[in-house]
Amino acid sequence: MKQKKVIRRPIPVLSFFTGGGFLDLGFEISGFRVAWTNEVNPIFARGFSHGMTAWRRSKNKNSPLAKISCIAPIQDVSPSKILKKAFRNNPPKLFGIIGGPPCIDFSNAGKNGGGRGRHGRLSRIYVERIRSIKPAFFVLENVKGIVYTKRHRAYLKKLEHRLEASGYRLDSKVMNALEVGVPQDRERLIMVGIRHDLVARCLGRKLRRADRNWFPWPLKRKYENAKSRFEWPGKVRRGEHVVRPKLIPYELMVASALNGGTPMSKLPNGKEAFVPYSRKFSQVREGDTKRKSFKRLHRYRYSPTACYGHNEVHLHPWKNRRLTVRETMRIQGIPDSYVLPPEIHLGAKFGMVSNGVPVPLSQAVASSLLRFLNRRN
Fold it and tell me: What's the CATH number where 87 sits?
């Protein structure tokens, strides 16, 4: 007798700190359904609406207008209101929460306020919302500083204990976007939490609270340890011939994001860039990325972490200007069909793009999570 094929509906997720929706994009591409979103910045909310609508309609022209579900701070929104808006007070047995609480208080480049900082406290509030809403699983994303800085790590441990006390089994890893095929050195903590009974069904065994290394983290051996494994080229004088290394995957090089396909100038957001005035645009050597400002990328090397503010956007490798909005989106792995509206000012566009999770990294984690959850039967 033939077994009846199980038809699975997309698993819904609630998205906190949505921003431009790049974490959401990775989950939707992998087969999840984003049922609710939250973003307090009105400019980011407008960018999300325009960008996600354009991306969804590139696949289905009848897709409805994408809108942020809730624009209030999460500390002001009760779990019951969230569940009512997302599921009309009838949540399914299997749904999740995803989000990356603001990381500036845990970043080495930030204010280092930790869990007591104005932004750092939001990580605790995010955890409390998870404990109150009780999803079957969750994903938390943050900077590596919350793991590698002693006092921040102690704060993270407290959050972990609260989640474990609420019945979740946790696993976490600092992942580099470079190792999933993104031409950018961007390390982020990814924490996955799954309800203890669901983990037992998926693994076929029970886990203790302290157990770790059980989640099947995505691994692409082609890019494993890419930063240290390959011999990356150094700085190049202006006008000097640049030779492309043969042993490094081309997709890990900035040139792969800036070349190929439709000319950048003809793509949406492809001409949007700060006007170059300074002489430094013609003086900085290609690959000189150790500077505090005016960092010029190397065409055959990965980009340092895209973290833009105060008009400080990385310089184009071979042109005397800063990167355009579309070029930074390419380096973040954002599809060309995701388009930001013209009325948003440049600083906000670059801030929104650089604050987000690289889409291929989100997609890799989401795909691994979905495969794991599908073991439950």
Answer: 3.40.50.150
* Catalytic machinery residues: 103
Q: What are the DSSP E strand ranges found in the chain?
A: 12-16, 33-37, 96-99, 137-143, 168-176, 187-195
Q: What is the spatial distance between Cα 275 and Cα 101, in angstroms, rounded to a whole number?
A: 32
pLDDT in tens, the chain (377 residues): 555 555 678 999 999 999 999 999 999 999 999 999 999 999 999 999 999 999 999 999 999 999 999 999 999 999 999 999 999 989 999 999 999 987 665 666 556 565 565 666 899 999 999 999 999 999 999 988 888 778 888 899 999 999 999 999 999 999 999 999 999 999 999 999 999 999 999 999 999 999 999 999 999 999 999 999 999 999 998 888 999 999 999 999 999 999 988 889 999 999 999 999 999 999 999 999 999 999 999 999 999 999 998 889 999 999 999 999 999 999 999 999 999 999 999 999 999 999 999 999 999 999 999 999 999 97
Domain count, the chain: 1
Residue 206: C-alpha distances to residues 137, 225, 371 (Å): 16, 32, 19
Q: CA triplet 65, 335, 226: central angle to 5 degrees?
A: 145
Range of the domain at 135: 12-224+358-376
Pull the structure tokens for residue 336: 């060309």
| Domain membership flag for residue 316 | no
Give phi and psi for 192, each to the nearest 5: -115, 130
Q: Residue 183's closest CA among 366, 364, 30, 361?
A: 361
Does 282 fall in a domain? no
Burial of 232 (0-12, 13-18, 19+ CB in 10 A): middle
- 72 in a domain, yes or no? yes
Cα(247)–Cα(267) distance, integer angstroms: 31
Residue 193: phi, psi to the nearest 5?
A: -125, 135
Residue 143 lies in a domain: yes
